[in-house]
Amino acid sequence: MDLEELKREMQEAGEKAFRAKQLYEWMHQKLARDFDEMSNIPKALREKCRENYSFTALEPVRIQESATDGTKKFLFRLADGNMVESVWMKYKHGNSVCISSQVGCRMGCRFCASTLDGLVRPLLPSEMLDQVYAVTLLTKERVSHVVVMGMGEPLDNYNHLLQFIRLLTDENGLHISQRNVTVSTCGLIPQMRRLAEEELQITLALSLHAANDKKRRELMPIAKKYRLDELMDASAYYFERTGRRITFEYSLIGGVNDSQTDAGELAELVRGLNCHINLIPVNPVKERDFAPTSPQKAAAFKNKLEKNGINVTIRREMGRDIDGACGQLRRRELHR
Fold it and tell me: CA 81 to CA 69: how far, in whole Å?
């Protein structure tokens, strides 16, 4: 619930409205893990809350820390026994958390571990939010940036995603800037257009991974439903409505989509769009036979895009030694 919903709930329960503000502060500023921590709430109200409401507090099952870059990967257990992953990354500009939006995923992208067992269920706004809160408490460091790019397709959980963003950026809570929130999508066009009309100031990151429809259909089943020209139109619409430059995520897979021809097609595809391209050396997944491109080919790919006047970076690889890619740690734990 947001603060206004909580106020109405408290009044309907026969409580004073200011109790809602106290509860909200305990949950979203002090990051309490249960009602017992709320020392200025009367014991009778705490009992009433415990009896009538669920309180989301994820249980850490496993925490892995990279020996090379300090990245931490968290496996959390939900109240129903399902598990999700979150990743904490330290950058010069602040600490970033990558969270999951679903248990599993139904999009079927061929290079991703999240989708291997299909979709179990969407996450509630509270379950998305508590990944950020739990990581903040466990690392004892403030989170400044949040990326919804872990397990799941965020726009396939649209309403819960929207409520999560509102709670995360609410001035009465952690108050993380909308400009520091990135939402990834594999390209659900109706939801992309709907999100543009919400006029939020978040960054939309579109998983592209190929610059022609044939190759994209081989990598991403969603491409059988939505063509690249439709995706480019939706991306332009998002910029037009929000003023926010779109990011195109492009996983470089050795011998699959990393040639100079691929780079030329990509440059032509995004020509005229206000965008940024993020090149990602693909994380090896043992159930797949894809390998990352070589550093030399990645640099040549980037160079070709830059010569075409395109803003591009190669994402620094983080967490490879701790199953950093989406879905790997959960899958290993389930098998164990």
Answer: 31
What count of residues does the chain have?
Answer: 336
Is 85 noted as a catalytic residue in this protein? yes
Q: Considering the entire predicted model, what is its pTM?
A: 0.92
The number of CA neighbours under 13 Å toward the Cβ of 114 is: 26
Which candidate in 15, 85, 153, 249 is catalytic?
85
8-state DSSP, 52 = H
CA atoms of 128 and 301, how far apart (whole Å)? 35
Question: Active site residue: 49, 112, 275, 326, which one?
Answer: 326
CA separation for the pair 162, 296 (Å, rounded): 40
Angle subtended by helix axes 3-12 and 18-28, to nearest 10: 130
Residue 253 carries which DSSP code? B
Structure-token match 């099952």, residue found: 61
Q: How far apart are CA 266 and CA 208, in angstroms?
A: 9
Q: Are 99 and 146 in contact (CB under 8 A)?
A: yes
Residue 11 has pLDDT above 70, yes or no: yes
Instruction: Classify residue 130 by burial, with Cβ atoms within 10 Å: 0-12, 13-18, 19+.
Output: buried
Which one is predicted more confidently, 43 or 285?
43
Number of other CB atoms surrounding residue 269 within 10 Å: 17
Can you spell out the DSSP letters for 202-231? PEEEEE---SSHHHHHHH-GGGGTS-HHHH
- Give per-residue pLDDT as tens, 283-335: 766 656 788 899 999 999 999 999 999 999 998 765 565 555 565 666 666 66
How would you write 264-330 as a 3-class SS string? HHHHHHHCCCCEEEEEEECCCCCCCCCCECCHHHHHHHHHHHHHCCCCEEECCCCCHHHCCCCCHHH
Residue, of 4 and 323, whose pLDDT is higher: 4
Dist CA 65 CA 171 (whole Å): 32
**CA–CA–CA angle 7, 10, 14 (5° rounding):** 135
